[in-house]
C-alpha cells in the first residue's frame, strides 16, 4: 500500500477518536471537564502524536516532511475531526 494512503488512513482513524473525545469534553460528559479550549487542545495533541507516530513508523523522508504531513495528515485529520465533532454535537 502506498505511504500516502497509510498516512491518510491513520490520521482519519485518529480524527474520529479525536472528534469523539472533543465532543465529550465540549459537553462536559467527563466530570469537571467542560471546556471548549480543552476540547480543541485534545484534538491538536492527538494530531501531533499521530504525526510523530507516522514519522517513526515510515521515516521522515518517506512521509515527505512538513509538506507531506500537511496534505496527507493535517488536512484530512482536520476535516474528519470537525465533521465527527459537529455530527455528534447535533445528535
UniProtKB/TrEMBL annotation:
* Keywords associated with the record: Membrane, Transmembrane, Transmembrane helix
Which domain of life, per UniProt?
Answer: Archaea
Q: Please list every transmembrane segment annotated in the UniProt record, as residue ranges.
A: 12-31, 37-58, 70-88
Report what the protein is called: DUF5379 family protein
What organism, scientifically named, is this protein from? Methanobacterium formicicum
Amino acid at each position: 500500500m502506498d505511504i500516502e494512503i497509510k498516512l491518510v488512513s491513520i490520521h482519519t482513524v485518529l480524527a474520529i477518536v479525536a472528534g469523539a473525545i472533543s465532543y465529550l469534553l465540549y459537553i462536559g460528559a467527563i466530570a469537571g471537564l467542560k471546556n471548549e479550549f480543552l476540547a480543541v487542545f485534545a484534538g491538536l495533541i492527538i494530531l501531533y502524536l499521530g504525526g510523530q507516530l507516522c514519522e517513526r513508523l515510515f521515516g521522515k523522508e518517506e512521509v515527505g516532511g512538513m509538506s507531506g504531513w500537511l496534505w496527507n495528515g493535517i488536512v484530512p485529520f482536520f476535516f474528519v475531526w470537525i465533521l465527527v465533532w459537529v455530527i455528534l454535537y447535533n445528535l
